[in-house]
From TrEMBL:
Disordered: region residues: 415-459
Alphabetized InterPro entries for the sequence: DUF222, HNH, HNH_nuc
Stretches assigned to the HNH nuclease domain: 338-390
MF annotations from Gene Ontology: endonuclease activity; nucleic acid binding; zinc ion binding
Domain of life (superkingdom): Bacteria
Name the UniProt record assigns to this protein: HNH nuclease domain-containing protein
Native species: Saccharopolyspora phatthalungensis
Pfam family, one: HNH
Family: Belongs to the Rv1128c/1148c/1588c/1702c/1945/3466 family.
Length: 459
């Protein structure tokens, strides 16, 4: 944000009676800045009046239990706003001593900046809070230096950024107190989760700053907006992107060998569903199977069960008439490690046309469903990212193998002509292939360029 003007400008004053519609762009910008400065100056005048009303105890005379409560009712503002104004007013206005002498404001630099309209009341609140949280020795000997530093920064940065600066100053001057704050945060940590009536899982958490920073570092790249496709931006809201990022984070965690095992098994998602319902087609409603049951006890459609079964450990379980287990077979991963490695080499993380390799653990998708008898082999499988795996199932994309490469046939809702689209490696993988020729060739000891650069095999 450009700094507010320090002195009134005649041209700006002349605009006060003109319609904003008739102003040029430069005049509008100047007018916005000037009005903000004027409002801040008026607010400082109100703070001075509030400080005097506080000194006289007007709130007590009118039956209010505090100055904040009285001001909230008087001005019809939120309690937080009233508290901010009273707190700042008490620190930026001249005070009276016990002997009736006038004493300068506790925070003179902040008062000066407010009087000029250079900073807002919210800036003032941050400065007051930052000074109050200093250790005792710093409040006695360094408060002037700290206040001048914060007031100077307040003229340049917004309140949220100023809070970060104030916190760093406190960490510098009160390392013992800061360490205790972090210890208190660790003790106050909590995470709760439950299932709502509609079957969605609700999570509420308060994390200490270290755990929170770790979470943010992991979730941010996974929840980043997808690049524009055909000029259209990612349609997901921030909340939806965060939820998708969290789902991708869970995929990565459940695929990790570092996750603790329970009963000798890695954590896994369990779906109980009749095998015939799982095999049944997904066309008309009367052809769909009965829903399955998740390990949380909630229902899941047969359609989503089929999608999940594309690349999951399937544990066949024979049930009797009372739905009691009679025999449990051996768990088999539909895409063993060696097949996944070959698929990644051929398809990259996702073979969907134009995919830019979204974050998350890729899924090995069967062209002919394993449930329907499709074999677990390269010719019947392709790698898909979580987003496109869901799209292929929900939108009814068809995938065929032609010359050893997957070809995607869109549904009529996407392309009425259903023109096939060649798939292949995700874009970053293609980019690496395109740049491979730019890598300088190796030279032999004699200084001659080798004719060919051997490919390295990585396992």
């Amino acid at each position: 944000m450009a700094p507010l003007m320090d002195t009134p400008d005649a041209s700006v004053e002349m605009m006060s009676s003109r319609s904003a519609v008739s102003c040029s762009d430069a005049e509008l910008i100047a007018r916005i800045q000037r009005l903000e400065q004027s409002m801040r100056v008026v607010m400082m005048e109100q703070l001075q009046v509030i400080a005097e009303a506080d000194r006289r105890g007007l709130h007590a005379e009118r039956g209010a239990r505090s100055m904040q409560v009285w001001l909230r009712e008087l001005l019809n503002i939120d309690h937080r706003d009233a508290t901010t104004r009273v707190t700042v007013a008490r620190n930026v206005e001249d005070r009276a001593s016990l002997y009736g002498e006038t004493m300068p404001a506790e925070l003179p630099q902040t008062a000066a900046a407010l009087s000029e309209g250079a900073i807002s009341v919210e800036h003032g609140r941050v400065i007051v809070a930052g000074v109050r949280r200093l250790p005792e020795y710093a409040r006695c000997h360094r408060v002037g230096e700290v206040e001048a530093t914060l007031a100077g920064y307040a003229r340049q940065v917004p309140p949220r950024e100023l809070e970060t600066i104030a916190e760093r100053i406190r960490y510098l001057l009160d390392q013992d107190g800061a360490y205790q704050d972090e210890a208190d945060q660790h003790e106050a940590r909590e995470l709760h989760y439950g299932t709502a009536r509609d079957g969605m899982t609700v999570i509420k958490a308060r994390l200490d700053r270290e755990t929170g920073a770790t979470f943010v570092a992991l979730i941010e790249p996974l929840a980043a907006p997808r690049p524009e496709t055909g000029g259209e931006k990612d349609p997901r809201s921030v909340g939806q992107r965060n939820a998708d990022g969290f789902a991708a984070l869970l995929d990565l965690a459940i695929d990790s060998d570092g996750v603790p095992r329970a009963g000798g098994q890695r954590p896994h998602l369990t779906i109980t569903i009749d095998f015939e319902d799982l095999k049944r087609g997904l066309g008309l409603l009367d052809e769909q199977g009965m829903p399955g049951t998740l390990n949380t006890g909630r229902a899941i459609t047969a359609e989503n069960a089929r999608r999940i079964a594309c690349d999951s450990e399937v544990l066949p379980m024979v049930l009797d008439g009372e739905s009691l287990p009679l025999d449990v077979g051996r768990a088999k991963r539909t895409a063993p490690a060696h097949i996944r490695a070959a698929l990644l080499q051929r398809d990259g993380v996702c073979s969907f046309p134009g995919c830019d390799r979204p974050p998350g653990t890729p899924d090995a998708h069967h062209l002919v469903s394993w449930i329907d008898g499709g074999p677990t082999e390269l010719a019947n499988m392709t790698m898909l990212c979580g987003h496109h795996h869901r799209a292929v199932h929900s939108q009814r994309w068809e995938i065929e193998m032609r010359d050893g490469r997957p070809v995607f046939i869109p549904p009529p809702t996407v392309d009425i002509d259903r023109r096939p689209r060649p798939g292949g490696k995700a874009l970053p993988a293609r980019h690496r292939e395109h740049l491979r020729d730019l890598i300088p060739s190796q030279r032999d000891p004699a200084g001659e360029t080798c004719c060919a650069r051997p490919e390295a095999a990585v396992s």
